[in-house]
């Protein structure tokens, strides 16, 4: 809604300038859309011609962004009477100065940075607090860190360089917050001794008032003289409660003479909010009557009938309020809106796919000289034979002998021996867990030893295969650490007692991998010499 306006000329084009709540816009004469929009927060300077001059001109200096230089926009008030033009300019300048001052004095609403901004602005590899938080949330990773970094020779930078994805995932997890919800829908009154009882905590009351400002006004006007318990008991059986919840109001629902009178006020406030809402120019249906057919009206569409959409309006209002609580104030968001991005966004939605130019497919053509060979298959006549008499004789002999399945075998000793062998084979192949073969302390030591060895191998191969000469010294230290893997495995095997064989069996592939790494390093070292 415009608070001040005037007929002006901008760049020798007649038009009209409007001062709205968050911006100044100029539209050419006869145009449906504004050709120039200046946000109040971007205005750096305001000038007006003195009263001694006959021409009434106003100059607005505005910076499109914080990093760009201000741009001057000159507007000449074109009223035929000079005195009227001067009065019109003075009124507009005064209103504009008041709006700019109010904008500067208003508290700024800072939007919470998105996850992408957090990830791009922070180096997770050097964030010690984030790394400590991740280690506290993952005990297994903490044990690996203790064995590899604190007890081993791996530096923290080497350890975290291969776990950047874990740090980023943990950072995203920490930045998440629980979103709003429809509080009224979760509150269910109970009937005890023919009285309605409602469990309303102070937190729930605060959340309900934030989502439904109308309910807070009703509460302030009715309590007192009405008691708080009586107010909530009457509210949850009223039609106003069903309306705010988004439920359908039935004719049989009881009417509360004090609370239900606010139903009409809610409808009026909703209509006023819809009238004040700023519609983007790209999707402004009122700007083009051809796209707003009024021949059929809302009759064909059930959801567009005003008498049937009360519940839909209520649910939409609740959803909008919950979404607004997650974003900055609507006023601040509208003030910094980028019109170019907005038009591009909506134009992508209204583009017709059938009118777009199809891109040519980039295919690789295969030229086959003789394609007929691919469709030829060797044929074999199974009924043909060089010696048909011999074939028939074999068939007849295989079908002429009688046999019985009643007596398969009568060697009981052989059957017992086979059963014992199968039982032993099944027992040997049965799964034996570490819990059954190793004590708890030996099992934890084995897991830490295996994790540390895997970490050392990963760091070694990453540096060795990179071919970076600056990592030669760190590779030599890593080889010395890998050579001690056998000693660590031996210590774990001694602490395992009777589970020594299980420890050696579990660590055998790791020891083979360690020997392979040491051998490859020695060969490369000898080749370099």
Automatic annotation (TrEMBL):
InterPro entries: BSD_dom (IPR005607), BSD_dom_sf (IPR035925), PH-like_dom_sf (IPR011993), Tfb1/GTF2H1 (IPR027079), TFIIH_BTF_p62_N (IPR013876). GO terms for cellular component: transcription factor TFIIH core complex. Keywords: Nucleus, Repeat, Transcription, Transcription regulation. GO terms for biological process: DNA-templated transcription; nucleotide-excision repair. It is found in: Nucleus. CDD domains: PH_TFIIH. SMART domains: BSD (SM00751). Residues 118-171, 192-243 form the BSD domain. Coiled coil: none annotated. Belongs to the TFB1 family. This is BSD domain-containing protein. It comes from Protomyces lactucae-debilis.
